[in-house]
Amino acid sequence: MNKVATYQKKKMGTPSFGEEWTIISLAAANKVTKTEKEQYAKSLEKKLVSCDGELSKTKYTEYSRVVIALSSIGYDATKFCGYNLVAPLGEYDNVVKQGINGAAYALIALDSGGYKVSDPDNYDYQGKKSIRDKLVNSLLRNKLKKGGWTMGKKVDPDITAIVIQALAPYLKDKEVKRAVDQGLTRLCQIQNKDGDFSSYGKANCESTAQVIIAMTMTGVKVSDPAFIKKGNTVLDGLMKYYVKDKKAFKHLENTLVNRMSTDQAMCAIASYYMKQKTGKSIYSKKKIKKKKRKSTIKKKHKKKEEATTKKIIYKVETTKHKKLPNRKKHKKDKHALDKYLVTTKKGGGAKDIIAQEKDKKEPAAQKRRQTIRNVAIGVGVVSGVVLLAGGGYIGFRRREKIAAWLKNIFSR
Question: What is the pTM of this model?
Answer without folding.
Answer: 0.70
